[in-house]
Give the backbone structure.
Amino acid sequence: MKKRLPSKTSNFTTLIDENSFYVDKTVFIKELESISDRYLFFLRPRRFGKSLLLSMLGHYYGIQHAERFDDLFGGYFIGKPHNQTPLRNSYHILNFNFSGIKTDKVDDVFLHFTNEISGAVKLFITKYNLFTDVETAEIFSHNDANSILRSLFFRLQGLQPGIKVYLFIDEYDHFTNELLAFNREHFSEIVSQNGWMRKFFEVIKQFMGEGVIDRFFATGVTPVTLDSMTSGFNVSKNLTLDARFHNMAGFTESEVQALITATGSETVISEIDSLVGDIREWYNGSKFSVETVQKLFNPQILINFLDYFYAFGKYPTEMYDPSVASDYLKIKNQLSILKPEEANEVISEIIENEKIKDRITLQYNLESRFSRTDLISLLFYNGLLTINGAEGSIMEYVIPNYVVKTMYWEFLRQSFIEENLSGFNTDDLMEIFDEMRFDGKVNKLVKYIAELMDKISNRDLLGFRESNLIMLFLPVLNFANIYKINSEVEINRKYIDLYLKLQPEYRGKYSFVLELKYLKKSEIEKYNSIKSEGIEQLKDYMTLKGLDKDKNLNAFLILFLNNKPEIVEID
């Protein structure tokens, strides 16, 4: 019987009961128990399967799920008797989920936080029927989250026989990251030495030490608030970069193939190699440890893609997930922590080279100046860079996949418009793409770029170079997603500036190879030789295997002398 494609639920019981395919992460239970640390933090980008991971662990360890153990886990690694651990179904589970705490009104954040803690404590007490009505009323006689939590733990401490609590916190940093991005002053208040968020973790640490909380597992996205909120919380271990737990969230390519095989039609399965190849280019690439070679897919983005593909038999018009695009503003605001010129330098280097080298920030000290290393690390934790290798403590980060590349290009486009093109009209862009795909010409595109360059100040043009020209073309070409853009693509050790492949879902027939050249006015004597060199390069490119059979592939050399263009079509 075919399995269903997993829904967007993060509840393990719901997933199993609806006969959805579950990518088996239960193998990590034994691994987690094998390490000496019992208080754990685990960071991954948004929508990476962290909530489902916690739900699965809660169902394995929760005493209330013992009777359904075989139903829930029988088909997975941990369901086999020889793989089970003595801690199975032995804990009272206390769950906190901070992802729903609203930050739109900063004065209400503490109220929302208290409501989350209060609601979770009520659910815990009701689920396990631990106290009398009088005892429960005493716990909730307090008005703030930390007092309610402390009162609960004191009551648990007095129970005979005692119980073991496993505390889960999902998205521990969600609302603090929101505040960091949009209201830094309020963020500093709540995580300061006397802030209520830090006091919350002090309560947890106190009752870890007293044995009430036997195990603790928190997930999040970044360690920006890890130091600020958990100062003195040195009993915990951060598993984020640990190669042993690299695949604990996210899908490997073999897991993606298993998912498609279990949920796809016979037609889909017959095309699985081609499908996985396209998925790899668009969505793969996340690596969170130097010691592993496997790269990971973002589960939610992949499932959204497959859901559309299964339903309509074709790829979505917008291959990037809209939920990813919604992160744009938050990332932009986090970048503003660094001086604008420093942040722009980092982003430009990433877009230009598609890689960048620096150390990694394991914990952020917000009392110190935010640094280049901090910014690059923040991009890594958010899934916008990934580890490619390392030399000592210096990491080489790269852009993980094509979808993330398009996010950088959009960031560049928006930034350029904000800085240089206030009120600039973008209505002409569709005319540009229509000329390209139907007529096979780039005249309107080049004219548009030249108009953009007219908006750049003479001072900025002094440092302008060929790579900057490419960075002007990229965000413009990415505007409508009509062309699949390959920048500095390598074919047979030759690098093509821009290879634009018309997306199959769009009408038209022309794709393009563009070679870009830029010279300052002072370099005019080189103009003819550079032009001849560019023409020969393009003629050479058009003979390359993979390009030579495309009859609708047009090649153009585009030269700019300062901000004056010339277009040369290669026959």
